[in-house]
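## tool: complex_structure
## caller: assistant
## args:
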Amino acid sequence: MSATAPLRNRTLSAEELARRERKIPEHYWGYILLAPAVLLVMALILYPVVYSFWLSFHSKHAYLPITKFIGFENFRRLFFESEDFWRSIELGAIYAFGSVTLQLVLGVSAALLLNQTFIGRTFIRGVTLFPYMVPTVVVVILFRWLFNDQFGFFPYMLDLLGMDRDAFLWVSPDHVMLTVILISTWTFFPFVVIGTLARLQTIDPELYAAAKVDGAGVFRRFIHVTLPQLASVLFVIVLLRFIFMFTKFDVIWLLTGASGLGYFVRTLPIYTFTVTFNQLQVGAGAALSVIMFLLLAAFAFVYFKLFKREENL
Amino acid sequence: MDELGGARKYISLATIYGFAALLLAICGFPLLWMVMTTLKPDSEIITAEPTLWTSAPHLEHYVRLFEQTNFLTYFKNSVLVAGSATLLSIFVATLAGYGITRFRFRGRENIAGMMLFTYMFAPIMIIVPFFILMRGYGLVNNHFGLVLAYTTFSLPFCMWLLRSFFQSIPLELEEAAMTDGASRLQAVVYVIVPLALPGVIAVSIFSFIVAWNDYIFTRTLINSDELKTLPVGVNDLVNATVIDWGMILAGGVVITIPALIFFIAVQRYLIAGWGAGAVKG
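## result:
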């Protein structure tokens, strides 16, 4: 009521506004209000995708003004002549699979914990979400410091545990993939926490009460009540996380750059960036972007199928 | 029986606090270590046997950061760019979120689907054509180009989130306000937006973080030092000559603080807001 009271005093201007509004048919307003958002997305996201498709059929150097149509030549070379390409797919899959698995384990455990009632829960929940808020560049610098082989915390821990600190170098060809997976897990697992926790809080407590009456212990309540309720949301989270990790650029790039070490974690996004900006082969780079786009579209298709089903529930 | 139940309760409480402590250590310790490192004298940083606490805390690394590097310039640029992108995203996404829930028109479902699809896009997939496009518009090495990039990239998620918020607000509320003599605009400003505020706040967090954290757009679009934003500027400090860990980590702390303050201020809206979005979008 209090919100509408001051409006009555301005009936005149309100009527005037209403009259102006009436000039435009209702459904046009939908288009007008959506126009800025749709135009931005079409011009700056969808158009570049189309442009990528066009470029991928051409041979183009970044600086030289020659653009030559070569059909599927870029793709043919990648598929049949480039070991680097297949390697980048393989490394990308390892990175995505490894980091999503760890994110899921840590994220779901944390969500289950935060769904309990205990003193300090709000505080712990806040701190749990911190890593997701820390800018990626800081995350990488921080872990480079923690893993630093001379002055870092983790090598020192190995020391204290009586192990040879030089036997396990975190940022080295042998272990850089593991290191990158651990860093990514740390910073992205809160995404899983948020999604899972939101769903956990909507589970009807009566389901647990009923299971308790039936004599189910903590473990069986988790298997028979919690897990089935979480299943669809976890599927969506895994799918999204996999897409995001498979296309992740900055964590890996900031840790290794194009340096020698980068070779050991050269996933598809890193390879794309290297081909485009270091080797200056814009056409081949675009072909890689197109491949990434098609893989994404396949995942998105599954997601939409599932999402439709979820929405109908 | 009762005693057994009591013991079991203690065990489960101990388990809960044990896990809570572990979670706190995993998430909090690296950040604590970073802050403590910045307060140490160099002799305690460059050592093979580091300690958490320092004997002589000081702020010299922060002083050096602001006096000897362009950090302050990067900071101003980041605030300007992220702030503008956030305001623009809120405005555009609110219009769109309202429009898509309150009006029936052809293609409505397609637009919603397109937003959900583009939410999954990563900048790396379009960075090349994006760069060529921006060069064509003369927006390379220009903050406005960055603002457009960040706004556009956060829009799909923001719109999706606000759509679900507007959907949850009953139409009757607006209709009641309008029968009371309010125009639609007034109904929206005085009735709907206040109710959708948690959503608007969640959107503002998301778009701020997207802009504040971005590396790849600034790296490709900006080439003069005085226009760089924090992530690129600070990363370039790491790659310069000998790494001054104390000073660089001080930079890390300063970059993180605005994001954390922003986050803490709006934390209570977050679980509700992101729940709606992260689960469904």
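## assistant note: Chain B has two domains: 2-58, 61-280. The radius of gyration of chain B is 24 Å. Handing back to user.
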